[in-house]
Structures are given as C-alpha cells and as structure tokens.
Write a structure and sequence with these properties.
CATH superfamily: Glutaredoxin
Number of helices: 6
CATH class: Alpha Beta
Distance between the termini: 30 Å
Mean pLDDT: 93
Shape: globular
Helix content: 25-40%
Number of strands: 5
Strand order of the largest sheet: 1-3-2-4-5
CATH topology: Glutaredoxin
Oligomer: single chain
Number of domains: 1
Radius of gyration: 14 Å
Strand content: 15-25%
C-alpha cells in the first residue's frame, strides 16, 4: 500500500512494470510483439492532473489492477506528440488496448477504478 503523503507519480511505472514506448518502437513493442496477452498502453502527460489521479488510484489499489493480468506500457505524449496524434488524442490519460496485433479499444480519461475494471473485463470476455 502506498502512503498518500509521499505520493510520487513516477512510482506507478515501476510498480506495474510499465514498459516505455515511443513513436519509433510502438508497433514493434506493442502491436507486432508475439503473444496473446491483453496490452494496455497508458498515454499520459507530464504534470497532468487527471493522469496523476490515475497514478495515485493505481498505487492505492495495486492488487485490483494486477488482478486484471494486463501487460502495461506507457508513453508521455506531451514529450512524444506524434504518438498522441496517432491516436487523435484530445486529452489524457488515455488507455489503448491491444491483443494479438489488434487494437481493441480505448478508455479516455480516468473513469475511476470500478468503471476501468469493468471496461477491461469486457475486453477479456467470459
């Protein structure tokens, strides 16, 4: 459990082993990589208030997110604007889901833990 008085937004990357991706390697690392795991790409921005809300919630509810069995990736689209344009982003955070080379959908904004979990469960199927 994370102590909210010592919140460090960057912790989320380490805690969930979020692999950094960029425009230059996105297809190779996320889309075309072998495997049938459900991949979640967390697109965020430096000093983004709503991104930090997700990061804090993720750190406070680590087990609930781990139980989803996602393979996590992350990219700061403020620093990598072409990646943000690729997805036509109008805001962050945005979570883009892939499996087996196919884009399954996306979650725009941080809807809160229950809604996020429900959306992921729908992609996982029965």
């Amino acid at each position: 459990m994370t102590d909210p008085t010592t919140f460090d937004p960057a912790q989320v990357f380490r805690v969930f082993a979020m692999r950094p991706v960029a425009t230059t390697d996105f297809d190779q690392v996320v889309v075309n990589a072998p495997g049938d795991d459900l991949r979640c790409v967390f697109l965020w921005g430096q000093d983004c208030y709503n991104c930090n809300l997700f990061k804090q919630a993720a750190l406070l509810h680590q087990q609930a997110l781990r139980d989803l069995g996602l393979t996590w990736f992350q990219a700061d689209v403020y620093a990598d604007e072409p990646l943000g344009r690729r997805f036509g982003l109008h805001g962050v955070p945005t979570f883009v889901l892939y499996r087996g080379g196919k884009r399954l959908g996306r979650i725009t904004g941080w809807p809160g833990l229950p809604q996020f979990v429900a959306a992921i469960r729908r992609q996982q199927g029965p």
